[in-house]
Amino acid sequence: MSYDSMLQQALKLHQQGKLDEAETLYRQILQTTPEHPKVLNLLGLIAQGKGLHSEAINCFEKAIINDSENFELFFNLGWSLSALAKYHEALEAYRKVLKIKPDTKEAYLALGETYALLGQKDKAAEMFEKALVFAPKYVEAEINLAYLNQDIKKLLQLYNEQPGYPSIAYYLSLLYRNQGDIQTALRYAVKAADGTTIEGYQLLAGELYLQQSCNDAAAAFFCEALELNPRSLPALINLANIETDSQAAEKMYKQAIDIDTQDFDAHLNYAVFLHRHNRLPEALEEYRKAVIINPQSSEVSANLGTLHRSLGETEQALDLFFNAFNLDKNNRQYALNIAETLVILYRQSPDKAIKIAANWLQYCPDNPFAKHLNASFKGENIGNDTQYSQELFDIFADNYEHTMRNLNYNLPEQFVEFIGQPAGLIIDLGCGTGLLGEKLKTSDNRLIGVDISAEMLAKAADKNVYEQLVQSDIIEYCPNIPPQAFVVAADVIGYIGDIKTLVQQVFPRKFAFSAAINDNSVDNFKLDISGRYVYNSNYISAILTQTGYTDISSQEVVLRTENDSDVNGIIFYAKEKTDEPKN
């Protein structure tokens, strides 16, 4: 076959989408003419389409050596450089396009997009506007300029005027997602993805479905993205995260890493997978690879800290949690990780833990976890620490029930065994995720749940046992309790301290509550190193009696297991004798 006929055949295959066959012919041609710029450019475009941007760049640069006035080569080079986040090099390539052909509107558009990625909004706007000078009706420039200015009104106008442009729907989706309107964002993302061959549009729809916990729909879009680009790392990683078959998931994580050994997300997600399956040495290795790629990732430091803590390496874990916290001081989970790990260290080396906790408080005097921890180490009474309680349980909500099961927590069952399932209105103070409410609920009663944490209340709502859920500090809520209500509080007063005000506000209603007990202590109540108050049972009985309760019964229970030891407590049931029916 002659050179010309081989090239024509290769071009035909390329146009038909038979890229591998076209590539084979292009490479055969290069064996005869290894520096042919047109063939090198076409090979670069195939590599670009496969996501092999380093290979594409190599082809374009070789072609440019022998065809330095071909503006298309510089444009293609800029595209692949930008795909590899080499933005400044991409800018230089696009400028060379304009030097050769100053009226190339696509180059101005690409410059604007690149400046936007660099966060240079003014320069980006200037480039989009220059593109519109050369082509006043250049829709892509109008779209990008509207998106840059966060102008939903303009994008909606363009969407109505140009329904055939999926990029308008794509950028509308991005803007609505930025505003937190996920439903509207998803609607436009699906429209953008419909019938297009742009991988990013499929990925956006998949990511938004994931946010809605619609895993099957998300997976369908990620699969479409993978069909468009078999080397799509986001598609592979997200599909692996969704996959319930651990072998299939692991295969996809490894495939992603094989595609790009320096991809941070691939190593991080694979490490989390290994960690979740208790393959700790392998997880540790993957986390370390992720750290090398991105040493500024607070998430990796936090995950590594959790792993080291599970291995009993407390001080290493603490160092990593502090590193995560220093990288992102607004992340409440990192502060909680530090506090929990300092409690573990306190049991091993009290003096060291106290010193580190004091330094943390000096460094972050307003952090509620640092303040509460220092008080608990000193046994100080800091009262009803509402900020600490709210932040703690907002963080804790997602894993609360799983954690409590691991602590052998069966207090709700013990409550019902002791007090039964009262009829009428029940006020569940500190209801949390509704574990007690589930056990108390019958057709003869109505439940109102009160909790300081919105996240815990959201979990409680899913149980459909409460007539009403109220976000409030329980002390502030008590004056609103109806006279005939039965009040319960399971594992709640440990966050209050002095219960005198609470008891006075609940009286004369029937009141059942639990408390951690240490009758060997000379204190009426004391903040334990766990961050909860522990009580002397005589103090509680005295408060109930002084307030006016005349019929007080109690039941010793094990509240939970911590550090392989039982946490002993008592359920108190207080009422007035006049509540009992008379003969």
Can you put this structure into words, describing what you see?
It is a single chain. By secondary structure, this protein is α/β, with parallel strands linked by helices. Among the domains are: 296-378, Tetratricopeptide repeat domain (Serine Threonine Protein Phosphatase 5, Tetratricopeptide repeat), CATH 1.25.40.10; 415-579, Rossmann fold (3-Layer(aba) Sandwich). The chain contains 31 helices and nine strands. The protein has a seven-stranded mixed β-sheet. The chain is elongated and about 105 Å long.
Helix-strand layout with pairing:
Blueprint: H1 3-15, H2 19-32, H3 37-49, H4 53-66, H5 71-83, H6 87-100, H7 105-117, H8 121-134, H9 139-148, H10 152-161, H11 166-178, H12 182-193, H13 199-211, H14 215-228, H15 233-242, H16 246-259, H17 264-276, H18 280-293, H19 298-310, H20 314-327, H21 332-348, H22 350-363, H23 368-378, H24 386-396, H25 400-406, H26 411-419, E1 424-429, H27 435-440, E2 445-451, H28 454-461, E3 468-471, H29 474-477, E4 486-489, H30 500-506, E5 511-516, E6 525-527, E7 533-535, H31 537-547, E8 551-562, E9 565-575
Parallel strand pairs: 1-2, 1-4, 2-3, 4-5
Antiparallel strand pairs: 5-9, 6-7, 8-9
Helix pairs in contact: 1-2, 2-3, 3-4, 4-5, 5-6, 6-7, 7-8, 7-9, 8-9, 9-10, 9-11, 10-11, 11-12, 12-13, 13-14, 14-15, 15-16, 15-17, 16-17, 17-18, 18-19, 19-20, 20-21, 21-22, 21-23, 22-23
